[in-house]
């Protein structure tokens, strides 16, 4: 007999705690430190402290529940009957397979993807996979591939200082609509941080990424075309080719002329986002892809509300500074203070002091 979605989610949460304990997930093979270079030092230090504490606690718990972990895993894998085509090519670990099946089955059931082909990269809060797109979707994206960004289970995902980014943002539902204050059940759950409330926050985080991609794509920005979102994953245009996914700018060395042109393009995109009322909030050469001489901005779940977030201007300066640091190293003259204050003035009408 099958497991319903709610039960699967709760089993997955149990499983993810246990797998962190035994360090079995493929995605967990790297230490968190390795993927955190693009976060500010103070945040990284605080988060690492918490992560170490969490791992210690969980390791202790895991010892007592090891057989439970096996049982949960077996039940979830047994429930995956009929989904063998979805993960035919890529060979995930057993835990990763459960996670992929549960996160991608909606896209498979809706006939959007037909197979997971390869893991592109495991980031600090999500892993991205290259999938084969269905015929319909291939026509939309003009490619046989599509990228699936699968978020880590919410229980191990809490790596960023979410609250700083969420300030001034309404919570978004799975349909991308703002949660109303009049929805008292939801508001209570959010306030009390119940498991349901945390799931709602998790969905909201992901929906900010999806709705920002939609708005930016529609406005002509250099972002992957968004295709669909589910509770734990989103589908978007795959940047790369059959040989490899596009590298990030940090992995790319540009000559000065090309760097000059791409710097202008990055600034155009930053301005476009600001004109829509948003700041990336985690922009750096780590979150820009480079493919066929073009750049693509990615990774938007933490977007900052320009008007609603008290730290908006500081975070905007931080984004611009990181971008300028990269392009300066490529030989471009880039004055972060000057660029940031010009753009800020232009789109907000405010001066710095
Ligand atoms: N649309 C895409 N096409 C190809 N590769 C992608 C795409 N989106 C993300 N990636 C790859 O996956 C990595 C992680 O994605 P990202 O959105 O930055 O998540 P994280 O929050 O985990 O850093 C990126 O650094 C990039 O290498
Ligand atoms: Mg990233």
Distance between the termini: 65 Å
Annotation field: number of helices:
12
Shape: globular
What share of the residues lie within helices?
Answer: 40-55%
Task: Give the distinct bound molecules.
Answer: adenosine-5'-diphosphate, magnesium ion
Radius of gyration: 21 Å
The profile of the biggest β sheet is:
5 strands, antiparallel
What is the total number of structural domains? 2
Mean pLDDT: 83
Are there runs of 5+ residues with pLDDT below 50, and where?
17-44
The fraction of residues in strands falls at 5-15%
Q: Give me the side-by-side strand order of the main sheet.
A: 1-2-3-5-4
Strand segment tally: 9
Structural class: alpha+beta
| SSE succession | HHHHEEHEHHHHEEHEEEEHH
Structure commentary:
By secondary structure, the protein is an alpha+beta fold. 48% of the residues lie in helices and 13% in strands. The protein contains 12 helices and 9 strands. A hairpin with a 3-residue loop joins strand 4 (226-229) and strand 5 (233-237). Helix 1 crosses helix 3 and helix 11 packs across helix 12 (336-348). The longest helix is centred in the N-terminal third of the chain and has 24 residues, at 41-64. It is globular. The protein starts with a helix and ends in a 5-residue tail after the last helix. The model is unreliable at 17-44 (pLDDT under 50).
